[in-house]
Amino acid sequence: ALAAALVRLPPAEAGPWVERAVRLGAVALCARVLYVAFVARGDFMPDVLAMLLFLLVGESLRPLAARNDMRLYALSLALMVAATAYSPGLAFAAAFVAFVALTTLALMTGHLRREAERFHAPGVPVGRAFLGATAALSGVAVLCSAALFVVFPRLPRSWNVQGRPGGEAVMAGFGDQVSLGEHGSRISPNPEVAFRVEFAERAAPDPAGLYWRGRSFDHFDGVRWSRSAEQAYVAQAPGRYAELWGGPLRAYRVYGGPPGARVLFGLHPQLRVQARSAVRAVGDASGDVRFFGTDAPSYDALSAAPLPPEELLRSAVEDRPIWAGQYLQLPPLSARVRRLADSLAAGEPTRYDRARAVERWLRSEFAYTLELPRDAGEARLEHFLFRRRAGHCEYFSTAMAVLLRAQGIPARNVTGFLGGEWNGFGGYLVVTGNDAHSWVEAWFPGVGWVPFDPTPPSSRALAAEAGAGWSWPAFLWMDGLQHRWYKWVVGYDLEKQFTVFRWVGGWFDDGG
């Protein structure tokens, strides 16, 4: 209807029909909003946005003689306010500046038109001086908005300011299950940003050793890993991790998280997690850190050394706690798989040596590939171990966890992200979907869950190749701008306000 109106507006006699259609549509959309809010108990904001858009279109189709200017202004302002709940990024900044400029022009031309009608002076010319004054007013309005934003007292908040969650959408490569059942295609690159990390030392870290732990899975049915409904508490106390694993301690701040993931990512073992946005962090029985709230997560974390001393691992006692059965569960295995597990463990004196033997065998004797198996028959663990001997990280982590469990070592599958890429423009690490990874954690009595990665190192090169391209530098530059916007504008809080005031005060002191 709007496209047709660009060529020809509806005639004046069509006004009553347009009015009836708008009222009927508004009633239907109001009913939809009430149904979603009170019956389905879902997110009703998309329906509110649909109603605002529908009303705005209806007002735009009225004849030029209709005095509906204020309704148009009010509806467009309401849409801008509602946009902050879904698109508060750089696109909103551009839309806000355009809105201020166009609204100023609309207000001035509307006033000029009304005055011309009042004094019966049609055809009033609009010259360059008028347009220049309008542009100047728009600039003043934007500057005043920025100044008011900076100095207006910031209050503690408990609502979402970084975009509403994306419903049930989950980032490809990270989910609630780990499955070996996919076949017949190739793993596609996914450059979508999962989260960003700033380090206290502000120096570029080595991404090869950064395992951003997310979820752990204890139950394997032969095809997929999942989490048991009831889990025994097997998480080591943070203080114990700090005491045994030692340092150097690493402090960092994480911004955001992959869509659909209700967990906080961090370097294992995490000693402390402190939320900075309107979310609440809760550690569960497995040691995973979940969060509650509608805001995009932002949090400070502190982690110990990535691995404890080897002497400590080799001296760990060989006991089997009462909860160990949960992490020794296995689907029916062929005798061939069990013989393989026994052969890899033969001659290894400690639990640590047996785990390293399995890890070393998989990293050296197998190949990493992004090509999926051809059919469901090939998408099985035994086919991977004895025939194909190539796969992606889920096959390697599954194989190691199964072989460890077959030896009586409690183990579980862990998913998250490995590494990331340093963004020199923003001074932070950007982690994308291409960095999604899966590895293993084995239990060492008195020490805790210790990570092992059986995937060959070549996987890092293939992941980098998948994410590389001529546009990647531009992507990093734009992401640096986006990160600054979220950090200093969307996430502008009382702490940052004090930082700005101190900087301004220091600048005046230096000038004096």
Structure explained in plain terms:
This protein has helices at 2-7, 15-39, 45-60, 69-83, 90-118, 128-151, 238-245, 310-314, 335-345, 351-365, 381-388, 393-406, 458-467, 472-490, 494-511; strands at 178-179, 193-199, 211-217, 219-220, 224-226, 250-255, 266-267, 270-275, 280-283, 289-292, 298-303, 367-368, 390-391, 411-418, 421-423, 428-432, 436-444, 448-452. The chain is an alpha+beta fold and 512 residues long. Helix 2 (15-39) packs antiparallel against helix 3, helix 4 runs antiparallel to helix 5 (90-118) and helix 5 (90-118) packs across helix 6. The longest helix is centred in the first third of the chain and has 29 residues, at 90-118. The N and C termini lie far apart (62 Å).
- Oligomeric assembly: single chain
Q: Mind summarizing the main beta sheet?
A: 6 strands, antiparallel
Number of helices: 15
* Outline: elongated
What does the average pLDDT come to? Answer: 86
Span between N and C termini? 62 Å
Strand order of the largest sheet: 8-11-6-2-16-15
Structural class: alpha+beta
Q: Measured on Cα atoms, how large is the radius of gyration?
A: 29 Å
Strand content: 15-25%
Helix content: 40-55%
Stretches with pLDDT under 50, minimum 5 residues: none
Tell how many strands the DSSP assignment holds: 18
Brief characterization of the structure:
With 512 residues, this protein is α+β, with helices and mostly antiparallel strands.
